[in-house]
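Support case: 4'-deoxy-4'-aminopyridoxal-5'-phosphate complex. Customer-provided input:
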Amino acid sequence: MAIYLDYNASTPIDPQVLAYMIEVYSNAIGNADSRTHSFGENARKVTEVGRKSVAKLLNVNADEVFFTSGATESNNIAIQGLREYAEKTGKKHMITTAIEHHAVLNTMKHMEKEGYKVDYILPESDGRINPDEVLNKVREDTLLVSIMHVNNETGMIQPIEKIGEELSKRQVLFHVDATQSCGKLVTELQKVKYDMLSMSAHKFHGPQGIGTLVLKKKKYRLPPVKQLFYGGQQEHGIRPGTTPVALVAGMGKACEIALVKYKENSIKMHAMKDSILDLLKNSGVEYIVHGAQEYCIPSTVNVQFVGVSSEALMIATKQFCGISNGSACTSKSYEPSYVLKAMGLSDQEAEESVRISWGTDTSEQELKVNLRELLNVVKSIQG
Ligand code: PMP
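Agent response - structure generated as follows:
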C-alpha cells in the first residue's frame, strides 16, 4: 500500500483528538454563546479549555487567542482587517516575501489593487530570507510586515526571531504565518516577538476547518484589526459565527499533545530525515536537495531528481507513495513552484522537484521500503 508523505498538506488526525471530539460532539450539545441554560455553559467551558490549551502551546494569554476556520482566514483577517487603521494613520505600505503561501500573497495582491504598496522580498538561493533586507525596506508609512515561519514547500525556517526583535522597537505590526511550525518548533515560536500569528490545527494532527489567529496585546490593547464580516459578538466580534465546539476541542487536544511530545517528535523527525538523506546518497540517482538543510524543518525535504519530470514521477510511483510538487492549494493547475523559482531555479529545475513530508506517526520502515521503490523508478527514468 502507498505511504502518505504529504504531511505539509495535511496530517492525519491523532486518534486521541478524534476520540475527544466524538465525546464532545456526543455530550457538549448546544451553542457556546447561549446564556440561558447549562447546555450553553457546558459548551462554553469546553471551548475555553481548548482556548487555554492553544494559549499554553504558544505561550500567550487565552484572551489573545481567536478561533477562525484556519490559517487562510487568519491571514486574511491579519492583513485585510487593518484597512480601517491604515486609512486612519495613512500607513499603506506592507512588506512580505515572494515565497509566502497564497493565503498571504493573494491577499497582498488584492490590497495592492486598493492602492496599498507591497514589497515582496526574494529568498537567497538557500531558501532563506535575509532579515536585513526586510528591515531595510521599512519606511515611515509601513503598516505591516508579514513573514512565514516555515515555508510549506521547502521546509526552510525563516529568521523571524530577529525580524520580530527589530520590529518590536518600531511602530510596525508584525504578522507570522506559523502554519507549518506550530506544534513543531514550539520553543522557537514562543520566543518570537510578533503582533499577530496564524495557524491551522490540521497541520499538526488536529481537525481540518479550525485554526487560530493570535492577537498579542500591547499595553492591554489588541492590534488594530477589524472583522472581515459582520454577525454576532463571538470571538469579540473579530470572527463572528457559532463557535464549532468540537473542532475547538480537537484543536486544543492537538495542542496539548504537541506540547508534551514536541521534543521527542523532533528527535524522531530528525532520524527519519537522516534515513531519507542516506537513502538518497546511496541510491545512485542524480538528485539535488533544495534549501540549506541546517535551517530546514526536520519533517520536510524538497528534492529534485535531475531529468525526471515530477508530474511523471508522481504518476509512476502512486502505488508507493503520496508526495507532491508545490502546495496543495495550487496543485489543481500545475505550474512550476513559484517558491523554487524565487530561489533562482529554472522552470525545468522546479518542475523536476518534489516535496516529501512526514510526521510523528510515519513508520520509518514503511517509508524506507516505499522510497526505495520510488528511487528505483527514478533510476530507470534516468537510465
Ligand atoms: N499558510 C501556510 C504556510 C500553509 O502551509 C497553509 C496550508 N497549506 C496555509 C497558510 C493555509 O492553511 P489552511 O488551508 O488550513 O487555511
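The pocket of 4'-deoxy-4'-aminopyridoxal-5'-phosphate is lined by residues 70-72, 101, 103, 148, 152, 177, 179-180, 200, 327, 329 (CB under 6 Å).

Case will auto-close in a few days if no follow-up is received.
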